[in-house]
Amino acid sequence: MSIEVKGLTHIYSEGLPDESLALEDISFRAEDGQLVGLIGHTGSGKSTLVQHLNGLLKPKKGHIIVGDVDITAENVVMRDIRRKIGLVFQYPEYQLFEETVAKDVAFGPSNLGLTAEEVDERVREAIELVGLDYDKVKNLSPFDLSGGQKRRAAIAGVIAMKPEVLILDEPTAGLNPKAHADILSMVEKIHESEKNIIFLVSHNMDDIARMSDKVLVMDHGKMMMDGTPEEVFSRGDELKKMGLALPASMEIAAQLRENGFAVGGTCLTMEETADGIAEVLKR
Amino acid sequence: MIRDITLGQFYPGNSWIHRLDPRVKIMVTLLYIVSIFVVKDFIGFALAALGLAVVIAISRVPLKFILRGLKPIFILIAFTFIINMFMIKGEVLVSFWIFSISREGLRMAVFMAIRLILLIIGSSLLTLTTKPISLTDGMEALLSPFKRFGLPAHDLAMMMTIALRFIPTLLEETDKIMKAQMARGADFESGNILRRAKALIPILVPLFISAFRIAQDLAMAMEARCYGSNSKKTRMNGMKICSRDIAACLIFAAFLAMIILERILL
Q1: B94 bridge partner residues
Q2: Please, how many CA atoms are within 13 Å of residue A43, restricted to the half-sphere of its CB?
Q3: Are B102 and B90 in contact (CB under 8 A)?
């Protein structure tokens, strides 16, 4: 399984005075099992791109090929797209609506037309996978859960559809540091067990640098960079021009280097930076 | 998809009509509506329509935009037309089965239809040329004399302002929720009425919850800034009657006099 985007272009309110080019000739490729980080300033077109991947928006030009199916084709069945690609919006807890957590998580899979047994099985699996206790929460109202738990329950609602590509649009926005770390380790766990492609949209460079296999950088509707975290974050000046930052670990290393401490390594995580500094001090 | 709703829409512009004081515009609109009921023949309607046409021309709001506002009430107009046409007895023009159309009925039907159309265009011109905020400011100013009888004029105006302000916010919210549920495979377009109504639950529940959340946040924010309607407040953009407002009043008074004279004399 791979996902390939070719020459994707989208225009908002075409033909009206407030027409704007939201996506311009976007192309990239993600391979099986990759965790892809998508970064960009607010309004850079990340959310528009992500909605195209799920078939919620149709492009003006270009193609999105998932496996061997072109999901931008005219005759494609929406249900097949939704089965292949799961999209978790920002603040997904605002989409909860059912009486119990189990029923809410079951909404997605039952829309796929599965049998009741299959749905139950998937609901249990998904709830456990996001780190909630199935027997404890299944009969609770989703509105009685805590903020972090609500978000987990909402993410479970998408995971239960067993998508081959899972897109998470800022899954940690507005959470406290503990819940933030929990959600990210949950994402890593899902990635490990489901072996799917994960797209992680985030403003947090530390998370992106630490977790991604591949980083995409967007600015003003264009794909500006596409590469490994090492490649992308080595272009710090360009990133800063786009209103983005370096991960804290790389920023520390860069400032130390400027002041004459030759800290080695890529410094994508705090551990690497610490090792680099330790080595300099040992010399 | 749900952004086509044109409730009390404002058409941005900077015409003479746009710049008039909202109080003057509200009063003139109210009196215009009254004048339409004063009229009792077609010459009077011609005068009223001419006056309206002049105002539309000055306001530079495209006619297409105005006529679009008539669409939703087309059924109402058609309904009154048909009822009037068949129900009023008199000299019979055409008759079939149990129905008959009389001369008086036909006249009344056309008469009522014109009256309704003038009414709607006249009042929609007010909202088309006045920003919602100035509209509520104007209403508040006009209602404030009734404060001494216990009418909460400021609160009413504030409620209206908030309601208008949050229409786009709630539409955006609906759009977001719809997309989120569609991503989970929800289907709003197929099935019979019952199925479609049921399909709305996943939208309505989250929408209500977020409406309450927004209301609570807003109340908190207002309270944090010491909002209380019992204290005397001054305005940043106060309303002031200037020469063009007086001119508008005089022109309208002349129009009103013409309508009344037409009724008495003809």
Answers
A1: B101
A2: 5
A3: yes
State whether B186 and A97 contact (CB < 8 Å).
Answer: no
| Beta-carbon pairs below 8 A across chains A and B | 52
Note whether B185 contacts A112, CB cutoff 8 Å.
yes
Identify the bridge partners of residue A72 per DSSP, sorted by sequence position: none
In sequence order, what are the beta bridge partners of B102? B92
Q: How confident is the model at residue B4 (pLDDT cuts 50, 70, 90)?
A: very low
Whether B220 contacts chain A with CB within 8 A:
no
User: Would the CB atoms of B185 and A143 count as touching at under 8 Å?
Assistant: no
- B2 near B207, Cβ under 8 Å? no
Q: Each residue of B151-166: b (16+ CB within 10 Å) or e?
A: eebeeebbebbeebee
How far, in Å, CA of B138 to CA of A31, rounded?
Answer: 61
Q: Hey, is the C-beta of A261 within 8 angstroms of any chain B C-beta?
A: no
Reported in sequence order, the residue ranges of chain B that DSSP labels E, i.e. its strands, are 92-96, 99-102
Domain count, chain B: 1
Task: Check pLDDT > 70 for residue B6.
Answer: no
Torsion A250-A256-A260-A262 (CA) sign: negative
The structure tokens listed for B169 are 């916010």
Lowest mean pLDDT among A17-21, A71-75, B246-250: A17-21
Environment class of A10 (CB within 10 Å of its CB; exposed 0-12, middle 13-18, buried 19+): buried
Sign of torsion over alpha carbons A181, A186, A192, A197: negative
* Tens-place pLDDT, residues B27-74: 999 999 999 998 888 888 999 999 999 999 998 888 887 887 777 788
Helices vs. strands in chain B: H and E counts, helices first: 11, 2
Enter the DSSP assignment of A10: E
- What is the CB neighbour count within 10 angstroms for residue B258? 16
- Residue with the two structure tokens 């001054």: B234
A109, A160 contact by CB (below 8 A): yes
Contact B90, B83 (CB under 8 A): no
Domain containing residue B7? 2-265
Are A95 and B185 inside 8 Å of each other by CB?
no
Distance from CA of A58 to the nearest CA of B (A): 13
Q: Which of A82, A89, A143 sits opposite B180 (nearest CB)?
A: A89
**Tens digits of residue pLDDT in A178-229:** 989 999 999 999 999 888 899 999 999 999 999 999 999 999 999 999 999 9
B159: its two tokens: 């409620």
Q: What ipTM was estimated for this complex?
A: 0.85
